[in-house]
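Help needed: design a sequence for this.
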């Protein structure tokens, strides 16, 4: 009952085999035939405990990204990774470690891979939409929590906005080649 009233504070994970998680699982909100089940709250970290993370809130990142031509240097933080792969992290300069360093290219790549795995689950369940943020709020919460549970760096922000931003950045290129998954089976992709 609480999960239905306040879905945004609950962690959601995929239940691909539709296994009943608890005796009251049938009363929990379900999307796409029950593949996404509400399970437990995800703790919110505090900015005060992570003072080296430059972009805790989304608005300063958005303002910085709009005001600079070079999104690569929008954080002003040197990641110390001179071993190639910088091109791989262009779209995720908003994600840093607890020490304020930008994530490595391999971590960035793994985040996008995990996002695409989530999109594939959504596609199998028939819940894909044209734009990432058009998805059901419970599904978006499932996505944010899935990524943030796997990558601690995505928890270093307010309301898991960095995990959602990975979805916003990654979804258009994924759905572009899967338009048959959209309601009606065709259309074009809109970038958010």
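Sure. Designed sequence:
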């Amino acid at each position: 009952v609480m999960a239905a009233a306040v879905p945004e504070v609950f962690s959601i994970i995929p239940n691909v085999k539709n296994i009943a998680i608890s005796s009251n699982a049938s009363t929990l909100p379900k999307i796409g035939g029950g593949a996404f089940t509400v399970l437990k709250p995800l703790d919110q970290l505090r900015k005060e405990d992570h003072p080296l993370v430059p972009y805790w809130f989304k608005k300063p990142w958005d303002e910085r990204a709009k005001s600079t031509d070079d999104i690569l240097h929008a954080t002003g933080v040197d990641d110390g990774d001179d071993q190639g792969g910088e091109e791989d992290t262009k779209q995720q300069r908003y994600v840093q470690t607890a020490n304020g360093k930008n994530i490595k290219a391999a971590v960035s790549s793994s985040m996008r891979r995990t996002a695409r795995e989530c999109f594939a689950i959504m596609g199998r369940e028939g819940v894909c939409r044209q734009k990432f943020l058009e998805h059901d709020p419970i599904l978006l919460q499932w996505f944010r929590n899935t990524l943030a549970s796997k990558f601690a760096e995505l928890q270093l922000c307010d309301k898991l906005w960095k995990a959602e931003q990975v979805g916003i950045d990654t979804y258009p290129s994924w759905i572009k080649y899967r338009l048959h998954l959209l309601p009606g089976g065709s259309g074009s992709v809109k970038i958010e």
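The longest helix spans residues 105-124.
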